Amino acid sequence: MARDIGIDLGTANTLIYMKGKGIILREPSVVAVDIRNDTVKFVGDEAKEVVGRTPASIVAVRPLKDGVIADFDIAASMLQLFIKKTLGNVTFNRPRVVICIPSGVTAVERRAVREVAFKAGAKQVAIVEEPMAAAIGAGLPVAEPTGCMVVDIGGGTAEVAVISMGSIVASRSVRSAGDEFEKEIIAYVKRKYNVLIGDRTAEEIKIAIASAAPYEGEEPYSVMGRNLVDGFPKEVTLTPAEIREVLSEQIGVIIDAILTTLERTPPELSADILETGITLAGGGAMLHGLDKLVAQQTGMPVFIAEEPLDCVARGTGAILESPETFSRTLFFDNRPSR
């Protein structure tokens, strides 16, 4: 029998949920490509491990940018290998796939995601908007005639949506999320200390001391980079306060998206949200103090979803497990890829 899977095809990480088994794959959305013959050498964890440690002929590629597909062929190859890793050979037993996209994508970007899934071996494809999947995965009552609000902050985009009766009533998608946080940190360290750090180091800094508001137990964090003056390794010590200042503009963009979405929400649903609160999901939800800042700016209760990194993947799984419950959300397309 075909094995249905749900895919959270994220800018930073890809998660795959198998019906009846739960999340069975969680790997970075990274591909190591040999540019001499344009072949894929490594994907996922293996590709991330070799970043910066390979010959010049092998480069790391992230086929998704800002939540959408930037390199179609590499994205298809990556997804194909991920599916093969989880399901084995799918040539004669192709799965039905539920795959997520940001709410603000264009028709062309939406079609590209669908085509990538077909090229990777899917028999049928259903596309679900990420904030809907995140809300379902967070356990919000999306099918009921009451308003609920979710803010899903991933690697490429931050998705804000108000949902009622299985549909998105108001939404906003901004390309200000985890990747932008890391770019801001890299630029700051280069500008302030004349030291160059890599993406992995910036991610370590973000996880260790990045915050949206002051928190107890703040401590400096030291990293190694390359001194741009003499080319030698140099240690830099950063404080949570300076990183907070660095990220304030990007966090402000997300706050503005939340406020704009609330302004577009019908009064009856706004009253519901005031009672049920705002739920934060995605990796960005774990940023120190973000929940407190959102609550302060909106005047509403704010909650962090349980296991926020898994919300979108769990949402696709819930749709697969109970398709009748989410029939308004789910539509499988079995037209062949062209």
Give the helices and strands as they follow along the chain.
EEEEEHEEEHEHEHEEEHEHEEHHEHEHE
User: Helix fraction?
Assistant: 25-40%
What are the segments in which pLDDT stays under 50 over at least 5 consecutive residues? none
Portion in strands: 25-35%
Count of alpha and pi helical runs: 10
* Structural class by sheet pairing and helices: alpha+beta
The main sheet orders its strands as 3-2-1-9-10-19
Q: What value does the Rg take, in angstroms? A: 20 Å
First-to-last CA distance? 26 Å
Instruction: Tell me the total number of β-strands.
Output: 19
Q: What is the global morphology?
A: flat
Mean pLDDT: 89
Summarize the main sheet: 6 strands, mixed
Short description:
Helices cover 37% and strands 27% of the residues. The chain is of the alpha+beta class.
Layout of helices and strands:
Layout: E1 5-9, E2 13-18, E3 22-28, E4 31-34, E5 39-43, H1 45-50, E6 58-61, E7 64-65, E8 68-69, H2 72-87, E9 96-101, H3 107-119, E10 124-129, H4 130-137, E11 148-153, E12 158-164, E13 167-174, H5 178-193, E14 195-196, H6 199-209, E15 221-227, E16 233-238, H7 240-263, H8 267-276, E17 278-281, H9 290-298, E18 302-304, H10 311-321, E19 332-333
Parallel strand pairs: 1-9, 9-10, 11-17, 17-18
Antiparallel strand pairs: 1-2, 2-3, 4-5, 4-6, 7-8, 10-19, 11-12, 12-13, 14-15, 15-16
Helix pairs in contact: 2-3, 4-10, 5-6, 5-7
